[in-house]
């Protein structure tokens, strides 16, 4: 198949492109610069220049493609709400091009959207349309496209990691380095679900090849790693101490990260594993945190 991939040189998207090419697919990837285009073309894919800010300048490139995998997202959390709205516009623009066809549009969301507000794990058969995380805009727009007849499938991400990046935990490590202490809230019992980036990339390909219209899939290898465990490993790596903060102290310490620091993001992937025979095999989050190089800051985004 001919697959269009946004974020084709990104942390996850670059692995998705490699896996697609290995499976014999033809790939066109969205890139922002000539240098990125050269990297992509060296792998054997085609490059399409464009930005998320102006999707109408490049969405016509979707016309000859058999499917779209959308992994790109602007991770500037200082403008998180605006970036989630930008994400909604991109999904809308891509859906308009796919209108009237059976071509799959695989979009990306977070596992938190599958949390019903109780104490249960986030699950694939739940969509909390009232979720306070602005990223809910992705699935709300996905639902609109689904109702318009588009074959929308959703991959929900946990903290996706290797020894360089760990999703939101990358920002946590940078904050701990800056503050000189690895903090958690109260007992640090709230958890983050996680998966290694290679396993996540393989799931995108499985959703493309064997997924179902309207289904949501959880790229979760570990249901929950506690924030205290994370703090302890990060503290050891940085050579600093840990500290427990009261809930009312979190905003002053964490800044924008406070919206994530105390929430429980445990999630199940039982249904996903059963439906797609997905068997994650990569290292765990704590293993990658132990193995990372703390002498330099990891790139964001």
Description:
This protein has about 300 residues and is an alpha/beta fold. It is about 35% helix and about 20% strand. The protein has 11 helices and 12 strands. It has a 7-stranded parallel beta sheet, sandwiched between helices. A 3-stranded mixed beta sheet has the order 7-9-11. Strands 8-12 form a two-stranded parallel sheet. α1 packs across α6. The longest helix is centred in the first third of the chain and has 19 residues. The radius of gyration is 19 Å and the shape is globular.
Note the gap between the termini: 28 Å
Strand content: 15-25%
General shape: globular
Q: How many strands, which pairing sense, and closed or not: the largest β-sheet?
A: 7 strands, parallel
Percent helix: 25-40%
Number of helices: 11
User: Major sheet: order of its strands?
Assistant: 3-2-1-4-5-6-10
Short description:
The protein is an alpha/beta fold.
List keywords for this structure.
single chain; 301 residues; alpha/beta; 7-stranded parallel sheet; 3-stranded mixed sheet; 11 helices
Question: Secondary-structure blueprint of this entry?
Answer:
Blueprint (H helix, E strand, L loop, with lengths): L1 E5 L6 H10 L3 E6 L2 H9 L3 E4 L17 E4 L9 H19 L5 E7 L25 H12 L3 E7 L1 E3 L6 H12 L1 E5 L5 E6 H14 L5 E3 L3 E5 H12 L2 E5 L4 H5 L3 H4 L8 H7 L8 H7 L10
Parallel strand pairs: 1-2, 1-4, 2-3, 4-5, 5-6, 6-10, 7-9, 8-12
Antiparallel strand pairs: 9-11
Helix pairs in contact: 1-6, 3-4, 5-7
